[in-house]
Amino acid sequence: MSSIYHEKQRSQLCAVHAINNLFQDGLLCSKNKLDKLCLQLDPSVLMNQHRSMFGTGNYDINVIMVFLNDQGYDVIWFDKRKTLNEINIDEIVGFLVNTLSSYKVFGRSINLFLFKHWYAIRSLNGIYFNLDSKLQSPMKIGDRDSVLKYLNEIINEGHNELLIVVKKGNEKFTFS
């Protein structure tokens, strides 16, 4: 696992970390790049609807989708009325998960404030990993069947959302 790229959480930059962890490239995405996209989507500097008003990150899905689209990828919001067995998982770059997360102050979780948190799941050499920036290291999930079971648990929790990342124009990615 030492060869797996894994950014750790800092500030509210989980979207940056999720993208870089998904693509295993720490230079692909940055706070500066996502801030520029926020301003393209909404020119308001102080009350920009696509990020934290404190400038610490907390980017929304619109920013992530535009960034990935510019990189040549499509992001598909998983429809929870379908089953994960309906997707051609072999044609997927990876998954982005959006979940609720408590905020940590001095290492302690404060549940008074819940924030949306992004993290990536992807296959590396045929083994799926949870690359959540809040983890100390990547968490091995296992093979195709293991990741489908894991993802089903995630989407059945109710407050989690699952996004599927594929190469733009990938005709092989289909729901059956």
Automatic annotation (TrEMBL):
It catalyses: Thiol-dependent hydrolysis of ester, thioester, amide, peptide and isopeptide bonds formed by the C-terminal Gly of ubiquitin (a 76-residue protein attached to proteins as an intracellular targeting signal). Residues 1-176 form the Josephin domain. The active site is at 14, 117, 132. Keywords: Hydrolase, Protease, Ubl conjugation pathway. GO terms for biological process: protein deubiquitination; proteolysis. Pfam families: Josephin. PROSITE patterns: JOSEPHIN. Its EC number is 3.4.19.12. GO terms for molecular function: cysteine-type deubiquitinase activity. It is an enzyme of class 3 (hydrolase). This is ubiquitinyl hydrolase 1. It comes from Hydra vulgaris (Hydra).
